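From the methods appendix. Each design record in this collection lists the tokenized structure first, followed by the designed amino acid sequence. Records were kept in a plain field format so they could be parsed without special tools. The example shown here is representative of the layout used throughout.

RECORD:
FOLD TOKENS (396 positions):
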């Protein structure tokens, strides 16, 4: 039996959550931003605002220039996380195989569903009535086709594309519109005369691999509707190369202690995910972005692996101090790489392993009762850590 994948994709999710709470804003240009100050950035924009050229990631001062009448609302990540969790819980209760792809997207295996279109309409109706947030559903024989079906039918659409219909319905799309390619690679492809999905179908694979390496084959496979690249992480459980976490803060920060607190918060998130996947890392990368959108990054490998939050934090802070400039910080990212399976022999006489035991116990409590139910003393008075925009990607 041919596989059928359904993608549930919330439309302008952060904005939709805010409009649901403020119905008078429906149909108007609205943006959710990381902060009201001039240096803020919009994380999500309504379709009405997009007509003016406004895009997610733009600084708020540019957004106001393009669309003077736009309503900008500070991000409320707690609200979005709650609504996202509620929607995902509904999907997991309704379907057997649900893969959460990001805070506002989930892939669902509907191979054994008799009428995916009818079920898709039921899902749309329930979510819109319960949460008052619009969504688009795409259905196809692979994740990438389901994703493209969503993109061409947004907003508030529902579309199934069969494998035999791929060129007819998607052949005209620009290459940068293919999930997994993006604008920069799309520009490189266009410089070779490859502009559309159909062009990628017809180009010689050898030419692509000579230009892009393995990514060239991925580009052609994606255009032909085959799951590859990050789409296969869900399918095959491909080995993780790194585990990281970065967040854009709700306001620019410059206080030394506050920067340390945010760094510890990020390292806690990374450490929990390392332990969840039962891996440790021999390298760490740190990235910092400032209020003026400049940034610095640094990486370092170590002889001893990183596994506990304390080890990750101490290493990250050491690297951060080497590259940090004295100006307001907008974003910090921490990533552990060179991963390997955990090889720690627990012993009651080993201080390092006592730390591992303690952190695993804390992980269990926080997994059961919610993130940071139990937290380190440095984070005890930190109320704003959940107000940063949550990242997109896998694992959630």
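DESIGN:
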């Amino acid at each position: 039996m041919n596989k059928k994948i359904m993608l549930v994709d919330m439309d302008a999710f952060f904005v939709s959550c805010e409009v649901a709470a403020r119905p008078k804003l429906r149909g108007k240009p609205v943006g959710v931003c990381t902060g009201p100050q001039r240096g803020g950035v919009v994380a999500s924009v309504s379709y009405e605002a997009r007509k003016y050229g406004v895009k997610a990631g733009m600084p708020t001062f540019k957004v106001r220039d393009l669309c003077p009448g736009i309503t900008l609302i500070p991000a409320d990540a707690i609200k979005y996380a709650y609504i996202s969790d509620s929607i995902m819980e509904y999907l997991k209760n309704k379907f057997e195989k649900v893969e959460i792809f990001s805070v506002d997207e989930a892939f669902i295996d509907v191979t054994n569903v008799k009428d995916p279109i009818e079920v898709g309409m039921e899902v749309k109706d329930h979510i819109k009535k319960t949460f008052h947030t619009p969504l688009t559903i795409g259905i196809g024989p692979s994740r990438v086709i389901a994703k493209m079906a969503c993109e061409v039918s947004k907003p508030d659409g529902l579309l199934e594309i069969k494998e035999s219909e791929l060129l007819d319905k998607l052949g005209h799309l620009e290459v940068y519109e293919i999930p997994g390619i993006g604008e920069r690679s799309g520009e490189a492809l266009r410089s070779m005369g490859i502009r559309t999905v159909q062009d990628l179908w017809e180009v010689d694979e050898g030419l692509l691999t000579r230009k892009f390496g393995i990514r060239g084959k991925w580009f052609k496979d994606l255009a032909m509707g085959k799951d590859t690249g990050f789409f296969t992480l869900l399918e095959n459980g491909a080995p993780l190369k790194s585990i990281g976490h970065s967040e854009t803060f709700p306001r620019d920060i410059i206080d030394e202690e506050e920067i340390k607190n945010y760094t510890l918060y990020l390292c806690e998130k990374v450490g929990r995910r390392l332990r969840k996947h039962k891996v440790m890392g021999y390298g760490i990368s740190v990235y910092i972005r400032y209020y003026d959108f400049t940034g610095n990054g640094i990486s370092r490998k170590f002889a001893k692996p990183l596994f506990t939050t304390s080890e990750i934090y101490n290493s990250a802070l050491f690297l951060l101090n080497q590259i940090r400039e004295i100006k307001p910080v907008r974003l910090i990212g921490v990533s552990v790489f060179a991963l390997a399976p955990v090889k720690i022999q627990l012993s009651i006489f080993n201080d390092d392993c006592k730390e591992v035991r303690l952190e695993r116990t804390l992980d269990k409590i926080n997994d059961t009762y919610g993130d940071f139910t139990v937290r380190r003393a440095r984070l005890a008075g930190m109320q704003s850590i959940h107000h940063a925009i949550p990242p997109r990607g896998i694992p959630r």
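APPENDIX NOTE: The chain is about 40% helix and 20% strand.
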